[in-house]
């Protein structure tokens, strides 16, 4: 399990000196004044990386091992929800297509209704 605990390097006020690009990032240098960033990857079950589940704060913080594991668990839960919604949408779309196919088959087997004069 690989977790990220930096913002392009350390954030000012952290344990390590910040990289120059971190110091100029608007989230760090701007009004927000970001001082803490921790992230766990959002990875699909088949290995695609979608992004990260992030924690941020204006105060310097540090995560212990249990908190790192909780962050990873939260990322896993978020990814499960994303994949569950995708599976539901895919299943629904397939069901709608199948219903349309069956309706077309049914319409093709029905005898034409006589026209009323």
Low-pLDDT runs of 5+ residues are: 1-10
Whole-number count of domains: 1
Q: Which value, in Å, is the CA radius of gyration?
A: 26 Å
Q: What sequence of helices (H) and strands (E) makes up the elements? A: HHEEH
**Helical content band:** 40-55%
Q: How many H/I helical runs?
A: 3
Mean pLDDT score: 82
How many strand segments?
A: 2
Structural class: alpha+beta
Task: Characterize the quaternary organization of these chains.
Answer: single chain
Give the biggest beta sheet: 2 strands, antiparallel
What is the CA-CA span between the terminal residues?
76 Å
**What is the overall shape?**
elongated
Strand content: 5-15%
What topology, given as strand order, has the largest sheet? 1-2
